[in-house]
Amino acid sequence: MDGMLISIIVFLVVYAAITFELVNKAVAAFSGVAVLILLHVIDEHHAIEFIDFETIMLLFGMMIIVGVLKHSGLFTIISVRISELTRGNPVKILILFSVVTALMSAFLDNVTTVLIIIPIIIELTRGLGLDPKKYVLSQAIISNIGGTATLIGDPPNVIIGSKVGLTFNQFLFNLAPPVIIIFPIVLAFIWATNRNQFKPIHTNIIKLFTVNLLLEKIRHDFLSIKIDYSLMKKGLFFLMIAILLFITQTITGLAPGVIAISAGIFLVLVSGMNLEQAMEEVEWSTLMFFVGLFILVGALEEYGVIEWIAHNVFLNVGDNPYVVVLVVEWVAGIASGFLDNIPFTITMIPIIEIMNDANPQFQNLLWWALALGACLGGNITIIGASANIVSIGIAKKYGVKISFLDFMKFGAVISLISLIIASLYLILCINITM
Amino acid sequence: MSSIEQHTIDKLFRDLIRVYSTSATSMIGLDSIQTAIEELVCKEDDLGGAIMMLSDIVKNTQPRMFPLDNLMLILDKEIKPLIENKQLDKESVYTILDTFRSRLESDLEALVQSGVEWIQDGDYIVIHSIEENIEHLIPEAKKRGIDFKILVLKQDIVTTGKILNILNDNKIDFEVIPEFDLVHYFDKITKLFIGTQALTNDNFLVCDPGTSNIVSECHIHKIPIILFLKTLKFSHYPAADQNIRKHNFQDEYEGVEYSFSIHSNDIIKLELINHIITERGEISKNDVTVLREQVVAEY
């Protein structure tokens, strides 16, 4: 059997294992790598060259910063304060939590965000006699929408930014505008289609009383952890420094990966945090997953599979810029809905590079189309994005069962709305730039 | 009012009582009532009905929440004439709630002052659940320089964790053992301190789960049992009508399915208690009936 066929089969098997969660993602990806090396499809030295260390460094650095902030209790304080601000008003719960989720997802990490937000929103809504399902779903979906806005917000953006060399500001200026439009429209849609869930409570003394008892319980339950204000200040300081350096990247010439890993390691140094403790905050399996996927896709590239897909699928759609850009966005959107958007993005990067070489007039439009599609399409199903899987897992732990279909009924419509808005935005960009 | 709303409030109170004393929980209840009234948007004529509805829900919790239950009875009595005379407004309710808060605080202060006398140098005192004696009285004794030690009987981790925090914060010497291990300590311990959620009109104490066993054991071993009780916890209901909740669910162990039941509270005969300490000082068991009549007359 030749190398090309083996690399395709291994890739498809790994993809299926990841999509249907047959084994741990990192184990699946690394098993695939092991098979390729053992069968001499690629050698180990070559495999290392396929790894995009820029992406790994960026993820590693941000994981340390986010982990330290989480450890300090910052996210818990924010969640409890937001709960207090809502005063139990269902519309305020939806809006305020969504704003926090979107911002935290844009500048931190959406999996950490939902890990903190989902338990507290379940406590709050269940305590008010509301169905927590819609609130859980809305936060998972909003985390993916918020994460779309920045280079560090969602794994597909991290991969695109690092591999292609796009800056933080380029992401912010090109992807934040559609996100700012999508965000309120999606919230309005959630409100309009679930109005019975968002009835005001200011005329119901029993509900108002319940809210106050509930807030006391939430304060006790969630704030009983040790809050380390000194660590929090240091963590926030280094997060600000990292964001500042991301923004001034064109002046400093520092790559996002370098910035993130430096900020992370200096934070450990200054905070006096035990290194082992800091390393515990790093999601090693996610990093291993990325490493494995880079190698698997690298093998496909090596054997010309990627080039074949680019020429026979994407470059066959013609040279009409509207068609090309929208095909990339919608294929990315739909594929990311049913496959994990991380391997999909890694696979698509070399394809887009070939398409850009063939059509230089697109400038960066195809990257934005890919990012918008991969991030927003991740909302179609549970398996579309890590934040969805994590949210549904936490909800289950708290006794809120959300099925694949429950998610899809909600997420697919919202993805459709988001992708249509993104399409209109991309059309506008084509009109302006080309 | 729906049964879901009642169940939600019952559950919240049960959760709060695990980590706060009945006094602290009642204070949270009063603050919650005031905030609810402040935030309520309704016609002036509907305010009385809304407050009565809230009062009913608080009086019907499982289990009944004292002293809050009695305070609601007083609230009902005080706002009825205001409703009839169309004089009820939010401010008048806040004034009543303020007097309740002041009363809770002054009763607690008086209970601590009379109770602290019961801790002496060399005491080794058994405690079990979160009550006023742990939140206030024991720290007060420590502040006064009394040299004593506490034996904590481990309950669920939330409650025991809270007790440990209080003892640790106040630098009080303590040891933790499982409840069933108490038998090995009867030659060392000097007193058992308990609190209660209510004293029923047929002279039973409503206490945290597990308290009955401990009291019985201490009674058999002639360890003095000291009850700290605010008179606002005198209930005019019998033990059978304290809304003690039986939680029943199906569980499974290694393939064997069984029905598991647990009650929200224990019931203990007052006669097993050696000393009853109230905010008015120590009272005898014979005084209880007279005192109850005085207190209940307020409602």
Question: In words, what does this structure look like?
Answer:
The complex is a heterodimer of chains A (434) and B (299). With 434 residues, chain A is mainly α. Chain A has one domain. In chain A, 79% of the residues lie in helices and 0% in strands. Chain A is globular and about 70 Å long. The N and C termini of chain A lie far apart (46 Å). The model of chain A has no long low-confidence stretch (mean pLDDT 89). In chain B, the strands form 3 sheets. Chain B has a 7-stranded mixed sheet with strand order 3-2-1-4-7-11-12, sandwiched between helices. Chain B has a 3-stranded antiparallel sheet with strand order 5-6-10, with helices on one face. A two-stranded antiparallel ribbon of chain B has the order 8-9. The mean pLDDT of chain B is 89. Chain B has 2 domains: 3-108, no CATH class; 112-296, 3-Layer(aba) Sandwich (Rossmann fold), CATH 3.40.50.10470. Chain B has 9 helices and 12 strands. Chain B is globular, with a radius of gyration of 20 Å. Chain B is an alpha/beta fold and 299 residues long. The chains are: A mainly alpha (434), B alpha/beta (299). The interface between A and B is medium-sized, with 19 and 29 residues.
Topology:
The complex is a heterodimer of chains A (434) and B (299).
Chain A: H1 3-19, H2 25-38, H3 44-50, H4 53-72, H5 74-86, H6 90-107, H7 110-127, H8 132-147, H9 155-164, H10 168-193, H11 205-223, H12 229-247, H13 249-252, H14 256-271, H15 275-280, H16 284-302, H17 305-314, H18 321-338, H19 341-358, H20 365-377, H21 386-397, H22 404-433
Helix pairs in contact in A: 1-2, 1-16, 2-16, 3-16, 4-9, 4-12, 4-14, 5-6, 5-7, 5-11, 6-7, 6-8, 7-8, 7-11, 7-21, 8-10, 8-21, 8-22, 9-19, 9-20, 10-22, 12-14, 16-19, 17-19, 18-19, 18-20, 18-22, 19-20, 20-22
Chain B: H1 3-19, H2 22-39, H3 44-59, H4 68-84, H5 90-115, E1 124-127, H6 132-143, E2 149-154, H7 157-169, E3 174-178, E4 191-194, E5 198-199, E6 204-207, H8 211-220, E7 225-228, E8 246-253, E9 256-263, E10 266-269, E11 275-278, E12 281-283, H9 287-296
Parallel strand pairs in B: 1-2, 1-4, 2-3, 4-7, 7-11
Antiparallel strand pairs in B: 5-6, 6-10, 8-9, 11-12
Helix pairs in contact in B: 2-5, 3-4, 4-5, 5-6
